[in-house]
Amino acid sequence: MKNRAYKNYIFDFYGTLVDILTDEKDPVLWDKLGQLYQAYGAAYEGETLKKAYAKHVDQARKELIDLKGVAYPEIDLAHIFNQLYVDARPQSRNSNQPEDWGQLIAMVFRILSRKHVTAYPHTKEVLAFLKEQGCRIYLLSNAQAAFTNAEIDLMA
């Protein structure tokens, strides 16, 4: 393959290299997340948390559309999960919220919503072959960095 036509290969991570199925409407997901928030002093039941999350996401989306003028803005879910905690924690208590709460909850959210994630057949072999040939490989994704990086590592 010395006279290869391409030196650089760009792949979309999800749907091209990796098959993933998530269910962000699963009531069990929201119940478990609500329990995690409760463990840190924020009063959420599953359905209440789901509604508050949807409201924050919708508001953030509208603000980003106005600010950036794009139809499909990328919302920072870690920030949303932080804001949900701030909104629901009792003001009189000392916060025992971990410093990286938003990142942690974004990751837990993804793990609980993920039904499966697997590399498509021969994906690893093809990528290894391209790398052996001296090709440069680039991964693109429009998903949240808060959990995409971990899923890339998971597939490595």
TrEMBL record:
Xref: InterPro entries: HAD-like_sf, HAD_sf
Superkingdom of origin: Bacteria
Matches recorded under Pfam families: Hydrolase
Keywords: Hydrolase
SUPFAM superfamilies: HAD-like (SSF56784)
A molecular function GO annotation: hydrolase activity
Protein name, entry field: HAD family hydrolase
